[in-house]
Amino acid sequence: MDRAFGTLTIPFDKLFNLKNVNSKIPEYAKIFDSVNCSVCGESTMINKTKKNTNQEHICFTCGGYEYGILDGNGIFCKC
Ligand SMILES: [Zn+2]
Prior knowledge:
The chain is an alpha+beta fold. The chain is built from three helices and six strands. It has a domain at 32-79. The protein is 18% helix and 28% strand. The strands form three sheets. It has a two-stranded antiparallel sheet. A two-stranded antiparallel sheet has the order 3-4. Zinc ion binds at residues 37, 39-40, 42, 59, 61-62.
């Protein structure tokens, strides 16, 4: 606790290295059509589904497929 609050008393230029940089801004995420999962009925981006043998769209959760999830701790596999 003391260390955390002590950080607030350190001058900005001692904590950070401020400089101009050139960075490439990533493109917007691609937009996909949505379909309803044939099991749960939830509207799901088509690229987050797989077709079953009857050509019905199944979301990854209902199909039990592996997929990545991004949260505050990073990307992990939902298996
Ligand atoms: Zn589903």
